[in-house]
Amino acid sequence: MRIVVPAGGIGGARFLRGLKAALGIGAPATDEQTTVNTITVIGNTGDDITLFGLRICPDLDTVMYTLGGGIDEEQGWGRADETFTVKEELAAYGMKPTWFGLGDRDTATHIVRAQMIAAGYPLSAITEALCDRWRPGVRLIPMTDDQVETHVVVDDGGGRRAIHFQEWWIRHRAALPAEQIISVGADAAGPAPGVLAAVAEADAVIIPPSNPVVSVGSILNVPGIREAMVGKTVVGVSPIIGGAPVRGMADACLTAIGVETGAGAVAEHLGPDLLDGWLVDDADAGTVVEGVEVRSRPLYMSDPAATEAIARAAVDLAVELAGRGAADGGTGG
Ligand code: FO1
Question: Is the pTM of this model over 0.85?
Fold first, then answer.
């Protein structure tokens, strides 16, 4: 099977580890294995930020490190065995900002990326080059090679102003009420090379439990990507369980765009025209979304086996719905 996964950071990366296991990717090939399963990840680049002359791509790096074995497991972002000497030295020079956790090992990734940007390489080529080292076992393509950044409009008493998503997320822990969340540059952006072809060739699109606004939402904001997916069999995994996000602060993002923090509300927000299937946790078993096949099962990615089972269920639902679509002559979507 060829699966396309639009993914953000921590939740998406962890889900992808389970999806690889469910599809036998990375496991020793068995001789009875007839079909080759592949995963193409469309990575969110809206979190990207330029700091100290370096271009930092948090969600691309989180997927690359998590699937490549270099992630700080506890944090879910950044490198294992990390140190912060460069960060401390920058602060000693009075360099701002000091709120961003710039790790020394991680900085090597940002230097390679900055050097390749300076040499004229697009982000998609740079990501491919970085993945040559990490071998994540999936094809990782940024959603676009153009600059798209998520900025958040806040008013903390000093008047309305837009701050970078990372400042809102890290410095303010998303506690500053967001009046607007904007994908700056999205309208002028185009899908990166390979994105639309991967979606067209996919047997299914699986939307992981990433942040539906700033991760999945940013990817769908790139003109052409959502439209391409509508025609495919799409199954999503709810990032909200029992009215609360499993991790991170997706509720602050949903509130900012006027969407209720609920498994059903997120599916409605993503759109019944896009979603064919939606996995919700047993806590949300009664969820009904018009035009979407809702199934409930445990959704806590509490360990690798649980995550693999969730991914397996998403794939199985996609296969079922694709078959149903073929049966009634539809193309899914
Ligand atoms: N998240 C934090 O909460 N604090 C940090 O200091 C931090 C630094 C950081 C550095 C590199 C990187 O790739 C990710 C980093 N993150 C940090 C996560 C980052 O904010 C992600 O964009 C969010 O977790 C959303 O995916």
Answer: yes
